[in-house]
């Protein structure tokens, strides 16, 4: 048997572009202006880190952020990154009605496209909130001209996940019988379980050597990694506020490790935007 050289595989790196308080579902959009915005500093810190390692990424942009900080979106585009949409308000998809979701999605796509001239191809739901009860959203993505989703996490989590979903890029049949590409975040298979190794809080919680081994296991099978991070995760000094333990225990955990671990990641693996890594499957060549 011939095994692929994992060092030659180009993997997909992505950034869910939002501020530190916008991902906290206990803080509604109506209260966002009560908190300190740190997205400007963290955006430049993230962009500089990616430049240092010559990594280009897909940035899933929160529409609200694009409206408030349009020059940041233009700067991301100027530095050669690809833009996707993260919705507008960071409200979980399964807490929205289809009409509300469609309106927010269109608003977010229009803002980013008008700022940069880029066509938006992909969507990542806030908190991976396309789950079994919100699969209706996939047809709305297609109606808005998107060609892929990266929201269905094949893991068990109290806020998200469809454990039975496929682990690698695939065509998914929607509720209406259409098809859309699904591009899941990386998981490694151990003891018949999908173990999340594709970034976010898992990068900070799981020892890096374990993460690295899981990612290499994926590459060794000839599959690209899909990895993600948030700008606020490289900011260990962002404000501490009183949160339910189920949220604070992961949100604030080991933030000081993020940049160090990203540096190791970029040294150990090759990365490019999702649209480049999967260009052949997506028909973007």
Radius of gyration: 18 Å
Order of SSEs: EHEHHEHEHEEEEEHHEHHEHH
Uncertain runs with pLDDT below 50, 5 residues or more? none
**Count of helical stretches:** 11
Query: Termini distance?
Result: 30 Å
Summarize model confidence as the mean pLDDT.
95
Percentage of β-strand residues: 15-25%
β-strand number:
11
Write up this protein:
- This protein has helices at 39-52, 63-68, 70-78, 98-116, 137-143, 201-205, 208-220, 245-251, 258-268, 274-277, 279-282, and strands spanning 10-17, 58-61, 82-85, 122-123, 148-149, 170-173, 179-182, 187-190, 193-196, 226-229, 270-272.
- The chain has 285 residues and is an alpha/beta fold.
- Strand 8 (187-190) and strand 9 form a beta hairpin.
- The two termini are 30 Å apart.
- 44% of the residues are buried.
- The model has no long low-confidence stretch (mean pLDDT 95).
Attribute tags:
11 strands; 5-stranded parallel β-sheet; 15% strand; 285 residues; globular
How are the SSEs ordered, and which strands pair?
Blueprint lengths: L9 E8 L21 H14 L5 E4 L1 H6 L1 H9 L3 E4 L12 H19 L5 E2 L13 H7 L4 E2 L20 E4 L5 E4 L4 E4 L2 E4 L4 H5 L2 H13 L5 E4 L15 H7 L6 H11 L1 E3 L1 H4 L1 H4 L3
Parallel strand pairs: 1-2, 1-10, 1-11, 2-3, 4-5, 5-7
Antiparallel strand pairs: 6-7, 8-9
Give a concise summary.
This protein is α/β, with parallel strands linked by helices and 285 residues long.
């Amino acid at each position: 048997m011939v095994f692929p050289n994992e060092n030659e595989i180009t993997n997909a790196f992505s950034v869910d572009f939002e501020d530190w308080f916008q991902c906290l579902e206990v803080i509604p959009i109506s209260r966002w202006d009560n908190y300190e915005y740190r997205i400007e500093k963290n955006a430049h810190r993230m962009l500089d880190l990616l430049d240092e390692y010559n990594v280009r990424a897909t940035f899933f942009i929160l529409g609200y952020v694009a409206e408030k900080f349009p020059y940041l979106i233009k700067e991301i585009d100027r530095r050669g990154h690809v833009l996707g949409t993260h919705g507008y308000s960071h409200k979980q998809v399964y807490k929205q009605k289809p009409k509300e979701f469609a309106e927010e999605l269109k608003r977010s796509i229009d803002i980013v496209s008008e700022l940069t001239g880029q066509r938006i191809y992909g969507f990542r739901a806030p908190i991976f909130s396309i789950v079994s009860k919100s699969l209706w959203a996939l047809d709305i993505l297609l109606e808005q001209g998107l060609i892929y989703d990266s929201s269905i996490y094949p893991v068990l989590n109290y806020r998200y996940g469809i454990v039975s979903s496929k682990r690698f890029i695939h065509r998914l049949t929607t509720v209406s019988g259409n098809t859309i590409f699904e591009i899941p975040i990386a998981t490694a298979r151990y003891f018949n379980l999908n173990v999340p190794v594709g970034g976010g809080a898992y990068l900070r919680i799981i020892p890096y050597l374990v993460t690295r081994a899981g990612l290499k296991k994926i590459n060794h099978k000839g599959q690209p990694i899909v990895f993600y991070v948030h700008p606020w995760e490289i900011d260990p000094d962002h404000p501490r506020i009183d949160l339910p333990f189920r949220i604070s225990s992961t949100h604030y955990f080991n933030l000081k490790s993020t940049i160090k671990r990203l540096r190791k990641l970029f040294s150990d693996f090759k990365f490019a935007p999702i649209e480049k890594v999967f260009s052949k499957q997506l028909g973007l060549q």
